[in-house]
Every structure is written in structure tokens, then in C-alpha cells.
Design goal:
- The complex is a heterodimer.
- By secondary structure, chain A is an all-alpha fold.
- Chain A has a single domain, classed as DhaL domain (Serine Threonine Protein Phosphatase 5, Tetratricopeptide repeat), CATH 1.25.40.340.
- Chain A contains nine helices and two strands; from the N terminus they run βαααααβαααα.
- In chain A, α1 packs antiparallel against α3 and α4 runs antiparallel to α5.
- Chain B has one domain: 3-Layer(aba) Sandwich (Rossmann fold).
- In chain B, strands 2-1-3-4 form a four-stranded parallel sheet, sandwiched between helices.
- Classes of the chains: A mainly alpha, B alpha/beta.
Amino acid sequence: MGQEITTSQLRRWLLAYAARIIENEAHLTELDTAIGDADHGVNMRRGMGKLQERLKEEKQSDNVSSFLRSVAMTLISGIGGAAGPLYGTFFLRAATSPTNGSSIDLVQLTQMFRYGLDGLQQRGKAQADDKTMIDTIQPAVEAMEAALAAHQSPAVILAAARQAAHLGMKHTIEIEARKGRASYLGPHSIGHQDPGATSAYFLFETAAEVFAKTGTD
Amino acid sequence: MIGLVIVSHSAKLAEGVRELAAQMAGDEVGISQAGGLPDDAQALGTDAFKILSAIEEVWCEDGVLLLMDVGSSVMSAEIALEMLPEQQRRKCKLSNAPLVEGAIVAALHASLGEPLQSVNAVAEAALSTPKLANTG
């Protein structure tokens, strides 16, 4: 797995993520109006605005861990709502995963997502099928791990993550919420896609788009 | 004497609970609040950095008890504790107490100079104190 993802490519990924979330603010609001408190779109847009400001600053560390830590700090304070501590923890924990200093390879990218996922589960106490962001992130990480084990190419690994994340997001339509505000609705939450699972899907969609191009950099 | 931190999604609620608790405790107990988001006092939410400064505001060696409202306030408080140096973190406790009743009871017992664990125990016991006792 020779391909290396540098800190500036991680930065490009998160700028793409921020832009994608901002484009989808109305969609996230609509999803959260159906089963939550209608604030996910606004909160994520606020956080992504802060993230864009942070990522566009002149001074950027080229160290992957400190870069991810600064992303975490920005999101913890910038998002508000339950998504702030959750996305913040995801990146805070991702920042503790192994790196090569100023870059990571595909194995390490997969580990980065795995560390983030584990942190998220500890923080939010959610399991698969609780109708949360875990339902997107867990299958995506597992798909990456399986594709790595099968010695697939970077493009295939990233595509597998995106596809599994997409299926996971769509699966939240069919299940009943057991965590978060939507859990107060019980069975009435069935038939609606989870807003957190949706915003988390864009992490993998934009990762596939941005990192698939990095081989030629 | 321990310090108390009131954590709420709403700055108004946090201030109101702090006011109620302070009435029980007099001036001796340090009670701080972390309510709402940093940039926008109207926006509902909790912020780990705000909680961190509220802890520092009332910090004392006897410890600090944090009382939270609903949902993500617990996650934000956990992150705030993780940001503290180890020797301070050991002396902070997240309470399972209901916010309003817990804060009032905790303030009273803190003012009597009780240690962190016992203040938290009586505050958490407020969960099972019936509000409508002797009315049947």
C-alpha cells in the first residue's frame, strides 16, 4: 500500500466535507425536523463555517495528529448540539491513531476511522442499529478493513467505504431510534432517515472523491 | 469546601438554577455556570470549553461537582474533564442528580463543608425523593 495521504490532502478532504454539509443544510434540517429538534442542519453549518475558517488560516501544521486535533477542537466548540461532542470526539480519537508524521497510508487511514469510531461509541454509548451516525461509520470502517485484508487497491477500498456508508445511512430509514432525541418517538421514528447518519455519510463520500485522486499527486 | 458547576443547554436555565442554588448556599460556595453556546447566548447547546472555564472558575482542592441537564450536556462535560490535567480531573465528579433539585441540595450540603462524594450522594438521592409526598 504505497499510497500516502498527506496532511494537505486531509485538509482538502475536510474542506470538501464542509462544503458538502453546507450544500445539504436544508436536507439535514428537513430530516431532523421529522424526528429530532430540527437543529442538525443549522448546527452542522455553523460548525463547518468555523472549520472552513480554521482550515483556511495561513499557518497549518503538516503533522497529521496535530492537524486532526485542531479539527476536533474546532468542531467541539463550533457545532453545538449533540453533534459537537460526537464529531469532536471522533476527530480527537482519530488524532491518536498511528501516522507517518506528515502523512498516512491507506492502512493508517482505516485505523484513523477505526479509532474515531471507537471513541464515538464510548462517548455516545450507541450500538449498531440504534439509528445514529454509528450505523453509517461502523459498516464503512468494517468494509475498509475487509477490503484491506483482501489486498484491494486504494480506489476499491475507498469505494467500498462509501458504498457501505451509503447502505448504512439508508438502513436507518428502516429501524427504530434507540438513542438521541429521536428515541422519544419510538416506533414513529421508523420510515425516516437519521440526520446524524446522513451527515456522517458525507465523510466517506468526500473521502472517496478526494483521496481517489491522490495517487497522481 | 467543594465548588459546583451548573451545565445547561440554555444560558437562562443555567443562570436560574445557579441563582436558586446560591440562595441555599450563601456566599461561601463557589457556583459557576456553563449554559448555551459560546458565540451566541440565544443558541441552545453545551460547549466543553465553556464547561472547562466554569470548572476553573470555582476550582478548589476539595473538588468540583458538575450538575447537567439533558442529552449532550453529559458528553460535553465528559470532554471538559478529559481536557483537565489528571490531578484536577480526579477531583471532579459528574453527578447523576436531577439538575434543579440536585443543585439546591448540593449547594446546601456543600455549604456545610461536606466532602465531594457525600454532597453528590445526597444530590443524587434527590432523584428518588417524591415531589408529591403526603398529598394522597
